[in-house]
Amino acid sequence: MSLLRTVSQKRAFRNILANNRNRLYNMAYAWTHDPYLADDLVQQTYYKALRSQKQLRDIGAADAWLFRILANCLTDHYRARREFLSDDELIIIEKRTPETEAEEDQLAQRVRLAVQRLPLPQRQVVTLIDLEGFAYATVAQILDIPVGTVMSRLCRGRRALRELLLDANSKMEVTSPPMMRRIK
Amino acid sequence: MNKDDIISDEQLNAFADSELDTEEENRLFNLSEDSPELSNRMCEQRRLKEMVRHAYREVPQPRRRFERKGQGNRLFVTAAAAVILLAIGGVAGWFGSNSLNATPNPVRIAGVADQVVVAEPEPYLLHVTSGDPQRMRAALQRAEQLLSTADGNQAHRVEIIANEAGLDLLRSDVTPFGDQIRALYEQEVLFFACTKAIERLEEQGIHVRLVPEADTHYSALDRVVLRMNEGWTYEKI
Lengths: 184, 237
Hints:
heterodimer, A: 184 residues, mainly alpha, Rna Polymerase Sigma Factor, Chain: A, Arc Repressor Mutant, subunit A, 2 domains, two-stranded antiparallel ribbon, elongated, disordered C terminus, B: 237 residues, alpha/beta, Hypothetical Protein Ychn, Chain: A, 3 domains, five-stranded parallel sheet, 5 strands
């Protein structure tokens, strides 16, 4: 019986991995705005998830667990490049080509540019909540921060987005994308 | 004091994210009925959420400049072999089951069972990420060791994948291990060079030439994930 349970758990785990690739990729893209880096991060997430699948006790918590690994992979990536960002730092990453611009609609472009302008910690909170619909408590678990910090980052992030996207006098210029830059 | 002044942005966020309890939600709905300004703020918050969701519904995918070299043929041959084996197995199974049904024979049943339980030797994926020649040599020696420890008269299947600085192992103008690689390849060890690592070097203006035994795969990690998912034993050297 226990062998059967182990086999079915392994199968369930692999199904979860197979079914979550797009979700993880979209989130990684929303955090980095770099398709290659996003792809790398998802692969590293899968690799780490497969290696440490025994640590996942509750298969129902697999979603948050995978996103937590993804967040850790991103942190490791920036650490390796000494680009670990504190809350007050701003990173703007833009690798836009004429092809991608043509493919994307104007509104999506404007929103992505605005999201890119958020500091990474705010960007992570906003996208985990808006794209995945995670509860604040789950986001706190994924990013290993208190719920109060989730709420304050969300608040600052959305305020900035509102100013960039909704305030009539601050329409963003989408034709002059920023270059990769890190401002302390 | 205006009624909606007492509603903070945090509360509005919690409302938009369904984090409020029913009582608090009702309070906000009631307040918004009397306050167009608050109603407007609530709508803006929801609109903002929808805009973000819309912006990332379809996102750009990485362009894959390198295709698998030679991998297609090998996969085709493997797939064809698998189909043939399945067909042979199916026909043999059909005849076997008919004859077993016709003449129950404990000896033959035992023989069939024995064949079923014979397991294939464990396959290994060795991953080289270091440009240190000692590490590279260790990976090749590990492959030799695995080949020499035949299990049930069958050798282990072994693949070696190289990325990052470990790519040097498979670069024809850099590797000091060309002969060992050739010898292992002749014993059916497969070698993969990570295409991302190649791309990164080429972006730096370094032209990458690989030993003829090396196959290219889009990503080392993709291969690792695939093989681990298939139950291979993974060893990072």
